[in-house]
Amino acid sequence: MWPSAELHVHIEGTLEVPLLLRLAERNAVELVSSDPEVLQRRYAFDSLQSFLDLYYENLAVLRTEQDFYELCSAYLERAARAGVRHAEIFFDPQSHTERGVPLGTVVFGLSRAIGEAQERWGMTASLILCLLRHLGGEAASDMIRAALPFRRHFVGVGLDSSELGFPPSLFQEAFAIAAAEGLHRVAHAGEEGGPDYVWEALDLLGVERVDHGNRALEDAELMAVLRERRIPLTVCPLSNLALKTAPDELADHALPVMLDEGLLASVHSDDPAYFGGYLDDNIAALRAAGVLTEEQFGVLAANSIVSSFASAERKAELL
Ligand code: ES4
Ligand code: ZN
């Protein structure tokens, strides 16, 4: 197991069925069923939107600081076992504030778990605040402004949720506010959207990293820019399979092409509770597909560390 950095995981997407049931009971939130098998069977999708519908439905069980702490602690413990030495964790504050959960409740719970993971396992982790595309540009700007009092709890801003119809251009003001605060900037692009979404994320939002980016391969000029500027792509193979944003066989995934083209790609888990696995499971599935050499797995792990926002000292320690 190569020491790695997890750079593309949504904390709300780490909500496993047993914890979902426990939190639903504790907070008196009614679920469609109390049978874990029935709930687990719903974790089957045919598109990004079909997944997002369930993801937003389930996260309604998260209400208190303790809930967010337990969610994040469980993730970090599992990630440590997967060889993750540094994690940059997405959270979707609008999905919580919209339901009346204060932002402080979310960030204090998550931050407490991160502090403990550092003490327990010497793991480093930080938070990236993700803006929800489907709520639009103005809501995104309002969210980032409302988050500034909590600035020390996160290192960057990201962009996620439904991609098609919500291009990066709508979020220029929010990302300009983030940039002025010295926050790192990343965005999901090229998952379902075409190369034009990746261009916009680079040119209009100034992102330093592209989440997914699979469809960048359709544009040779874009690939050259990503290669020359060393823009990382955080690739999520099991997510792509689950959401049908890649061919049905992992052996046909674009990842080997990305490496052959000299792109700075690394492997991540996205929403591991929903897509069938954590970082180690993604690596194991790629290994089973037999399309990457052991040396390339080493390159992918090193790429994850190089692509992170960890300090130069921390990167040197992990490489
Ligand atoms: C997501 Cl896989 C994916 N894509 C876009 N937004 C998301 N939020 C959580 N998982
Ligand atoms: Zn994602």
From TrEMBL:
Q: Name one Pfam family in it.
A: A_deaminase
The alphabetized UniProt keywords are: Hydrolase, Metal-binding, Nucleotide metabolism, Zinc
According to the entry, every stretch annotated as the Adenosine deaminase domain falls at 3-319
Listed CDD domains: ADA
Keyword Transit peptide found: no
**Record-listed E.C. numbers:** 3.5.4.2
Q: Which cofactor does it need?
A: Zn(2+)
- Out of the domains of life, which is the source? Bacteria
Q: What is this protein called?
A: Adenine deaminase
Q: How is the cofactor bound?
A: Binds 1 zinc ion per subunit.
According to the record, the segments passing through the membrane are none
Q: What organism does the record attribute this protein to?
A: Mycetocola reblochoni REB411
Q: Where is the active site?
A: E191 (proton donor)
Annotated residues for binding of Zn(2+): H8, H10, H188, D270
> Which family, according to the similarity comment?
Belongs to the metallo-dependent hydrolases superfamily. Adenosine and AMP deaminases family. Adenine deaminase type 2 subfamily.
